[in-house]
Amino acid sequence: MDAIKATAESWLTDFFDEATKAEVQNLIDTNTEELKERFYKNLEFGTGGMRGVMGVGTNRINKYTLGKNTQGLSNYLKKAYPNGQVRVVIAYDCRHNSDTLSRTVAEIFSANGIQVFLFSELRTTPELSFAVRHLDCHAGIVLTASHNPPEYNGYKVYWSDGGQIVPPQDAEIIAEINSISFEDIQFNAKQELIQPINTEVDEAFFEAAVSNGNFNAAGKEDFKIVFTSLHGTSITAIPEVLKRAGYKNVTIIEEQARPDGSFPTVKSPNPEEPEALALAIAKAEEIGADMVVGTDPDSDRLGIAVRNLEGNIELLNGNQTMVMMTRFLLDKHKSKGFRGNEFIATTIVSTPMMEQMAKAYGVEFKTALTGFKWIGKMIKDFPDSKFIGGGEESFGYMVGDFVRDKDAVTSTLLACEIAADAKAKGSSFYQELMDCYVKYGFYKEHLVSITKKGISGAEEIKQMLKEFKENPVESVQGSKVVWVEDYNTATAKNVQTGEEKSMDLPKSNVLIYETEDGTRIAARPSGTEPKVKFYISTNAKLKNVADFKSVNSQLNTKIEGIKAELNL
Questions:
Q1: Which residue among the candidates 74, 98, 146, 160 is catalytic per the annotation?
Q2: Which bin fits 230, alpha (ψ -120 to 50), beta or left (φ > 0)?
Q3: Which parts of 188-301 are beta strand (E)?
Q4: Spatial distance between the Cα atoms of 179 and 63, rounded to a whole number of angstroms
Q5: pLDDT score recorded for residue 452
Q6: How far is CA 50 from CA 24, 66, 70, 373, 461, in A?
Q7: Is 146 designated active site?
Q8: What proportion of the chain, given as a percentage, has pLDDT over 90?
Q9: What pLDDT does residue 503 have?
Q10: Going along 320-458, which residue ranges are E strands?
Q11: 259 falls in which pLDDT band (50, 70, 90)?
Q12: Contact residues for 77 (Cβ-Cβ < 8 A; gap 6+)
């Protein structure tokens, strides 16, 4: 506790503003536990950048923690690009304080002689990724905490290719940040280096999204869409993109259309949660809409709901949406003729169905660690290959490579194209998904997410993963484990034969068991939240769509049995 108190007292110097010093002193005097939470560590970069609760302290998002990151990044950029003017672009979402924090970040960059393009109003994360290359910048920043609760904010860093930072830049930037103190932050802005961006990038981004996501589907005139931005940034882009692509029957949920970091109409602005789309689904039932689309606050992830075989609106999961988008894109590329260098991609905890589709179409399949930055990195690492599309189970998808991060704007348009085209042919989005299950195997996934907050929570998560590894699973629902993939050591071991093989992926705190019947159980801590996640994947053959209900019920029973076996 003495070290924590000493760290807190270092925030009482004249470098820090009066309001900050007063709050720190009050914590020292009155609230030992809160003081510990705020100062026991520094916020760190995870799979999606840095996220945290806003407030005073080294373990909080504030102008000093973001300032130190920005100062370290400024130092790194100037070393990486010693000749010529360094340029960065900054965007921000609907979060509380995002506008003022983005301005502070811009001012620090400018104080370091770096030219800044700053969006004058909130914009989507995919537009920021696009803007990095469009404006020929060396880096990009977006202030966002994705779908986290209202008290959170965050900071994601993008490199010159438009993708999030990856090795070796991430470790080098972190080392630069750790080498400086708060007192090294340069707050004295050079306003002449800060250039506001209004609509000029919007126009280019909208045009690119329509170009990549519009396939001139039939039936747009009769296709009804209900859209909700869940109080986030997508209201600035998706309605316009749908309009330009020819969709006229778009109903916007007005109660959720105004950007608001308090997210007053939902428990969580997370399109993975059925509750978040409740208003939109109710409206869809009322007006007889074909599809519901909802996006998270920074518009990189989307949830869609479509009419199932009984005609009821059903929320699909990220794996189902990813499979449908990829199959559609593969069909379109196949119709033009494959060149032999195409590939699709997903992550190690997403559905194995993606690999089965790749085999069926004869294209290359690549897997990455969890976190979309690794899919973006593939495009940079394989410049002679053609990226068709790819995604991850957590409701993110990327269409082509004009954006180098998950992109709910273009993906929304693509989902509408698939559904409108299917409806015009007498089918439906859901029916087409059933057809995929028959062709490639019925894969069903389930996610168990356990949240553990605070210092003790971090230790609990660490212990859970340690026990999962040290007490290995030997069988799952009667099916013996064959392979154990330990991404901490980058090795896979066949526990039945003793065979070992190395995995060509960066090391990561992930452990995966695979059984004889293809069941997969993965465990990993979240890189941006105080959570540990368990991913369950089961599968069965589906001879025809008529058997869907019974086979689906069998897989549901199996998943519940797995959860009981593993005490999840």
A1: 146
A2: left
A3: 194-197, 225-228, 250-252, 291-295
A4: 18
A5: 78
A6: 22, 9, 12, 14, 19
A7: yes
A8: 87
A9: 93
A10: 342-347, 364-368, 386-392, 396-399, 442-451
A11: very high
A12: 86, 88, 114, 138, 139
